[in-house]
Every structure is written in structure tokens, then in C-alpha cells.
UniProtKB/TrEMBL annotation:
<keyword id="KW-0418">Kinase</keyword>
<protein>
    <submittedName>
        <fullName>UMP CMP kinase</fullName>
    </submittedName>
</protein>
<dbReference type="InterPro" id="IPR027417">
    <property type="entry name" value="P-loop_NTPase"/>
</dbReference>
<keyword id="KW-0547">Nucleotide-binding</keyword>
<dbReference type="Pfam" id="PF00406">
    <property type="entry name" value="ADK"/>
</dbReference>
<dbReference type="GO" id="GO:0006207">
    <property type="term" value="P:'de novo' pyrimidine nucleobase biosynthetic process"/>
</dbReference>
<keyword id="KW-0963">Cytoplasm</keyword>
<keyword id="KW-0539">Nucleus</keyword>
<dbReference type="GO" id="GO:0009123">
    <property type="term" value="P:nucleoside monophosphate metabolic process"/>
</dbReference>
<dbReference type="GO" id="GO:0016776">
    <property type="term" value="F:phosphotransferase activity, phosphate group as acceptor"/>
</dbReference>
<dbReference type="GO" id="GO:0019205">
    <property type="term" value="F:nucleobase-containing compound kinase activity"/>
</dbReference>
<dbReference type="InterPro" id="IPR033690">
    <property type="entry name" value="Adenylat_kinase_CS"/>
</dbReference>
<dbReference type="InterPro" id="IPR006266">
    <property type="entry name" value="UMP_CMP_kinase"/>
</dbReference>
<dbReference type="InterPro" id="IPR000850">
    <property type="entry name" value="Adenylat/UMP-CMP_kin"/>
</dbReference>
<dbReference type="GO" id="GO:0006221">
    <property type="term" value="P:pyrimidine nucleotide biosynthetic process"/>
</dbReference>
<keyword id="KW-0665">Pyrimidine biosynthesis</keyword>
<comment type="similarity">
    <text>Belongs to the adenylate kinase family.</text>
</comment>
Amino acid sequence: MSKAAKNEAKSLWNVVFVLGPPGCGKGTQCKRIIQKFGYLHLSAGELLRKEESTPGSPFKDLIDQHIREGTIVPVEITCRLLENAMQQAHGAVGFIIDGFPRNKDNLDGWNRIMSDRVNVQFVLFMDCPSEICIRRCLNRGQGRTDDNEESLMKRIQTYQMNTLPIIKHFESMNIVRRINAASYTLLSKVRKTFR
């Protein structure tokens, strides 16, 4: 590799996507990983909820509607929020992005907007049965407006129709590391994927 190519590779943000159904434990495991490996955790959902609650946000009503309906927010908004968060982070080894990309439009938008700025290291796929995910969401008590059975069923349908094909796309690129997220030994399995 030439010196110029090495310098260019060093200037890219390292990214790990964390994907899986709602309630599989993406946020919980990401918070544990950052303590061990120096990555910064960026949750697309948390960034969207924060933007939704920001007074005067031009995206507030649109984000609110998508969250209530269990549908996917337009990629331009999500990519803008992710890019802003990355630009504000200093000293991070890389970024763990959970809950994104969630559909083909997200992936295409990400590639269009961010592909020249990032190095996607791998995709951590947290596979978990729907019944366990629903039970976890209903029992987590976070007070989220989308943690009710009707919204959860819509979110799981959206995941199955839109996100699973994205995971299969990444599998065809041989960058998916799949773990059983229903397991009690989940943290040790997740840590092994980063070694």
C-alpha cells in the first residue's frame, strides 16, 4: 500500500454496524463494548429521538410520525445526524452504529453520502426470535412511545421486510458476524467478534 493510500485509510472513520430485531439487545451490548474497545456508540434511534425532542427542529413532526407508525425515517435525516455526531467525536477508535442501515434506501443513502468518509469494518448481526424481542421490549420499562405491542409488531414486520435483506447483502460481502442474541452468554460472544 502506498503512503498516500495509508494516509487516506487513516483518515476514514472506522464503523461497525450493529443490526438485529427490536429488543435483541443492540443498545445494551453496544454500551458494554465501548468500555472495552474505545469505540463510540451511535444509536440511530437515540439520535432521532433526541432530534424529535429538540424544540424548533425542522424534522420534529416527520420523525415523530415515523416513530409512532414504526416506519423508517428518511435516510438524509439519519445520515445527517450520524455524520454530525461523528464530526463532534474526538479520539474515538471508531463508531458502533446500531439500528442502521435498516433498509435499501438507508444503505444506498449511506453509500452515497458517507462511503468516501468511512471504513465499514464489519456488521454485527444480533439474531434473536421475535417472541423474546417483544417480551424484552415490553419489560424494559424505558417509557418509549414505540414500546407497545401494536408498534412492536409493526417494527418487527418492518425489520423482517426491510432489514433482513440488508443483512443478507452484507453476508454476500462476507462482513457479517452473527451471534445468538437470545443467549445468556451474549457479552462474551459480542466481545469475541471485536478481537
